[in-house]
């Protein structure tokens, strides 16, 4: 046998022995060692007791909560040879998740978990009938050097203000507070979270103005403050959110005009300002926002002429909802060149003129609403278009609009539109 082959063979065996030894040592250490420090384990157990009740003591867990019998909703990692909790999820996330106690409390032990990166509560704090549950006084500063994600979802019994101390969580990348009972104003300190990428505070009871400081979150990708009672105007500082992809402020009480600085959001794919009190003219340079896929401004007293905007630059648009506004003029034929358009809502405005049959050439269009306007003339869409759209084609309440194919089957005729011969001259 060649000496090189023998040498390589022995080297391979030698390496394998080392690997087996290391693996054996790792397994032996996991079984016989102390995988989690006593301080960390007690902190975790007492914290969970505060959430689910004193009946739980973890006595059925062996050898530790991160080893062979882990706690549902607890994720760990190894630091310096010991297990530490990195992710804690409380609430009805899985069928076998631990149920929350009606008198849930945030014990100080939670904030002793020195490597905690993610904390979430889902469908946990259901009703304030047993007394309000707040998180304002909790020691959030203790997590400032580790925590990256905080989420409270579907906890209507969680009341009080959003803690201002959240602004001290300097490593925070995701703050999600959805469908809770939070009230009061938005903490300006959140604007200090320079690494924040996701800010979702939707469907709460929040009031007051949006702080200017929120426009300094230069790394933010998602901002959703929808379904609250926020008031005032849009901060001019929002022009600094140049990384933003999704921007949703719908269903609030915001007013004033849309600032032109919004157009600096060159990467924006969703802009939803619907159901507010925003006014002014539809003249802000949306034609510069070439990445837009969804533009939703419906149910605002915004006026303007659609003919004055350069729609051809918004070639990626899939959803365009400008319904229930104060728009005038005609419907530009250039909209029919938006090849990706799936939803077009222009209903309940003061639009006039004809409806271009070229809209039927949009292959992905599955909903078109122009009802409640002053459109006139003959609808010249092919039968296939009416059959495809059904009731998703809304053209009713346009008294001078008609269709000319009297032999069209009743089940595909445009609802609420007369045959042209029935229209008074």
From TrEMBL:
Keyword Chloroplast belongs to the record? no
Major place of localization? membrane
Please provide, in alphabetical order, the Gene Ontology terms of the cellular component aspect for this entry: plasma membrane
Q: Where are the transmembrane segments?
A: 9-27
Q: Which UniProt keywords apply?
A: Cell membrane, Leucine-rich repeat, Membrane, Repeat, Signal, Transmembrane, Transmembrane helix
Q: Which Gene Ontology BP annotations are present?
A: response to other organism
> SUPFAM superfamilies from the xrefs?
L domain-like
An example of a Pfam family matching this protein is: LRR_1
Q: What InterPro entries would the database entry show?
A: At_inactive_RLKs, Leu-rich_rpt, LRR_dom_sf
Q: Where in the cell is it found?
A: Cell membrane
Tell me what this protein is called.
Leucine-rich repeat-containing protein
Source organism per UniProt? Cynara cardunculus var. scolymus
Query: What does UniProt list as this organism's lineage?
Result: Eukaryota, Viridiplantae, Streptophyta, Embryophyta, Tracheophyta
């Amino acid at each position: 046998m060649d000496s090189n082959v023998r040498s390589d063979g022995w080297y391979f065996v030698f390496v394998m022995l080392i690997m087996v030894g290391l693996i054996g040592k790792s397994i032996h250490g996991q079984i016989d060692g102390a995988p989690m420090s006593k301080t960390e384990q007690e902190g975790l157990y007492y914290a969970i007791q505060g959430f689910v009740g004193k009946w739980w003591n973890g006595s059925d867990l062996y050898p530790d909560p991160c080893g062979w019998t882990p706690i549902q909703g607890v994720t760990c990692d190894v630091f310096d040879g010991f297990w530490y909790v990195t992710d804690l999820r409380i609430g009805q996330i899985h069928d076998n998740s631990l149920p929350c106690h009606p008198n849930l409390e945030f014990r100080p032990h939670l904030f002793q978990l020195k490597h905690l990166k993610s904390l979430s509560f889902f469908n946990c704090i259901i009703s304030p009938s047993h007394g309000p549950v707040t998180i304002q006084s909790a020691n959030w500063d203790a997590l400032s050097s580790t925590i990256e994600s905080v989420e409270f979802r579907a906890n209507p019994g969680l009341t009080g203000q959003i803690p201002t101390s959240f602004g001290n969580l300097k490593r925070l990348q995701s703050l999600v507070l959805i469908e809770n009972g939070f009230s009061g104003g938005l903490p300006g300190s959140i604007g200090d979270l320079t690494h924040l990428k996701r800010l979702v505070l939707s469907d709460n009871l929040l009031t007051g103005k949006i702080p200017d400081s929120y426009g300094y979150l230069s790394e933010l990708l998602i901002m959703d403050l929808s379904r609250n009672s926020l008031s005032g105007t849009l901060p001019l500082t929002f022009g600094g959110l140049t990384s933003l992809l999704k921007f949703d402020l719908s269903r609030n009480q915001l007013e004033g005009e849309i600032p032109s600085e919004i157009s600096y959001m060159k990467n924006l794919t969703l802009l939803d300002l619907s159901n507010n009190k925003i006014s002014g003219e539809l003249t802000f340079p949306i034609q510069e926002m070439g990445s837009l896929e969804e533009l939703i401004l419906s149910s605002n007293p915004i006026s303007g002429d659609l003919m004055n905007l350069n729609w051809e630059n918004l070639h990626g648009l899939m959803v365009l909802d400008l319904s229930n506004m104060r728009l005038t003029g005609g419907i530009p034929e250039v909209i029919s060149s938006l090849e990706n358009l799936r939803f077009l809502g222009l209903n309940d405005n003061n639009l006039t003129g004809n409806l271009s049959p070229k809209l039927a050439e949009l292959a992905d269009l599955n909903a078109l609403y122009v009802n409640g306007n002053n459109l006139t003339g003959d609808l010249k869409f092919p039968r296939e278009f009416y059959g495809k759209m059904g009731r998703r084609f809304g053209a009713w309440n346009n008294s001078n609009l008609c269709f000319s194919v009297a032999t069209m089957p009743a089940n595909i005729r445009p609802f609420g539109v007369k045959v042209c011969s029935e229209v008074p001259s």
